[in-house]
């Protein structure tokens, strides 16, 4: 499928989705959000890991498109926020791991996009922030929820209330990103992580993601029961038989996702 603002690539069960609107530093508008949503709805069944990045050397996603938002009324603003939040929720609940390869500015909606991914790695020139209050709005693509979960309520409030941008090293220190690397090494590092994920049983990886997401807000007893149920379901897969047989025979397992 052809997109106006997305570049797509598939190699060895790893998909790379590049947001490409360089004139606006890859800012998210309704069209781009719609294209991302469509891509996620139709992602190739062979994909075991997805990497999301931005086009160019300056920006992952510089934010939501202010020119589109400037004249919205309250109802239209709510609808625009819901559109972005719904797309990012698709990323969060996609049954494969998603890696954000943050190659520059990740501000506002860009930071929220990165947070919707499972793993975030960034280049040393990356900048993160939720500067919305300086525009008279708040994070609208679930940023208030995910930032507090990732870095804690106190730090999230400070960043959102001040609208301050932070550099890559501080993002790493507070737990917003998993790793920082040189710009030239970013995609290679993302591919390395993706390849290590793809070497494992895809159903087990999907169940692990489902458990972590679902159990976050559950009471401990319910979370443990949820995990136990999916743990048991793993034993109904061919991959479990393959993996344990290979371990016992000291051979390499070849998982097929069944």
Would you spell out the secondary-structure blueprint of this structure?
Blueprint lengths: L5 E6 L2 E6 L10 H12 L7 E6 L4 E3 L4 H4 L4 H20 L4 E5 L2 E3 L1 H8 L2 E5 L3 E3 L13 H9 L1 H10 L3 E2 H6 L5 E3 L4 H13 L3 H14 L4 H15 L3 H12 L9
Parallel strand pairs: 2-3, 3-5, 4-6, 5-7, 6-8, 7-10
Antiparallel strand pairs: 1-2, 8-9
The total count of strands amounts to 10
Please report which band the strand proportion falls in: under 5%, 5-15%, 15-25%, 25-35%, 35-45% or over 45%.
15-25%
Radius of gyration, Cα only, in angstroms? Answer: 19 Å
Order of strands across the widest beta sheet? 1-2-3-5-7-10
Instruction: Report low-confidence residues grouped into runs of 5 or more.
Output: none
Count up the helices: 11
Please state the overall shape, judged from the principal axes of the Cα atoms.
globular
Helical amount: 40-55%
The H/E string reads: EEHEEHHEEHEEHHEHEHHHH
Please state the average pLDDT score.
97
Give the biggest beta sheet. Answer: 6 strands, mixed
The secondary structure category is alpha/beta
The span between the termini is 27 Å
Describe this structure in words.
The protein is an alpha/beta fold. Helix content is 48%, strand content 16%. The protein is built from 11 helices and 10 strands. The protein has helices at 30-41, 66-69, 74-93, 109-116, 143-151, 153-162, 168-173, 186-198, 202-215, 220-234, 238-249, and strands at residues 6-11, 14-19, 49-54, 59-61, 98-102, 105-107, 119-123, 127-129, 166-167, 179-181. A 6-stranded mixed β-sheet has the order 1-2-3-5-7-10, sandwiched between helices. Helix 4 (109-116) packs across helix 5 and helix 5 crosses helix 6. The radius of gyration is 19 Å and the shape is globular.
């Amino acid at each position: 499928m052809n997109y106006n603002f997305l570049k797509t690539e598939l190699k060895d069960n790893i998909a790379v989705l590049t947001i490409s609107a360089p004139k606006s530093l890859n800012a998210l508008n309704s069209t781009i959000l719609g294209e991302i949503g469509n891509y996620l709805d139709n992602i190739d069944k062979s994909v075991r890991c997805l990497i999301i990045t931005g086009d160019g050397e300056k920006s992952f996603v510089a934010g939501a498109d202010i020119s589109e938002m400037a004249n919205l009324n309250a109802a239209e603003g709510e609808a625009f926020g819901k559109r972005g939040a719904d797309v990012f929720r698709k990323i969060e609940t996609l049954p494969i791991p998603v890696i954000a390869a943050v190659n520059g500015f990740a501000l506002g909606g860009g930071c929220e996009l990165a947070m919707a991914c499972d793993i975030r790695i960034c280049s040393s020139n990356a900048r993160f922030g939720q500067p919305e209050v300086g525009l008279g709005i708040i994070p609208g693509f679930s940023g208030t929820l995910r930032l507090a979960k990732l870095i804690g309520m106190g730090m999230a409030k400070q960043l959102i209330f001040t609208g301050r941008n932070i550099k890559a090293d501080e993002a790493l220190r507070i737990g917003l990103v998993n790793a920082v690397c040189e710009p030239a090494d970013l995609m290679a590092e993302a591919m390395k992580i993706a390849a290590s994920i793809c070497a494992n049983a895809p159903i087990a990886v999907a169940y692990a993601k489902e458990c972590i997401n679902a159990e976050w807000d559950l009471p401990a007893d319910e979370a443990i029961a949820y995990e136990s149920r999916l743990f048991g379901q793993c034993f109904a897969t061919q991959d479990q038989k393959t993996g344990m047989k290979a371990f016992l025979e000291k051979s390499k397992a070849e998982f097929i996702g069944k």
